[in-house]
Amino acid sequence: MKFLVLALCIAAASAAVTPMSADQLALFKSSWNTVKHNEVDILYAVFKANPDIQAKFPQFAGKDLDSIKDSADFAVHSGRIVGFFSEVIGLIGNPENRPALKTLIDGLASSHKARGIEKAQFEEFRASLVDYLSHHLDWNDTMKSTWDLALNNMFFYILHALEVAQ
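Structure tokens predicted for Globin domain-containing protein:
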């Protein structure tokens, strides 16, 4: 019975995900490689746009964002968040990596659900990330549609995992 439920979940998830072309995948990965070393700036942009997200981090809650931006704690946590995305993006595109992707995404969902992080905050994070990218990449219609497709796929899995996380 568990196998049947798992098979149905995988089938439903696969139906909601749109495959990326080789060109889209290459653009997605290469453009991420352009900004992935800007960890602090990315997290700063997310927190600046969404103080409610900053408030979910005990070490940053209630603190002035500009005063913590250059701290070691902020740099370390920025590295963790951006590193997660780098790891996921690095695995995308190879079907053999699906179990690893599932493990990463399930772990993210489980740890965030336990801390009361809701779907809306993931969506806020996504919007802020896209805003950051649109100002730091050669943003055009092709780049936008590639990132929309990639993030639609990624966040479909993330939000689904958040729903079913224990």
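Residues 1-15 have pLDDT under 50 and may be disordered.
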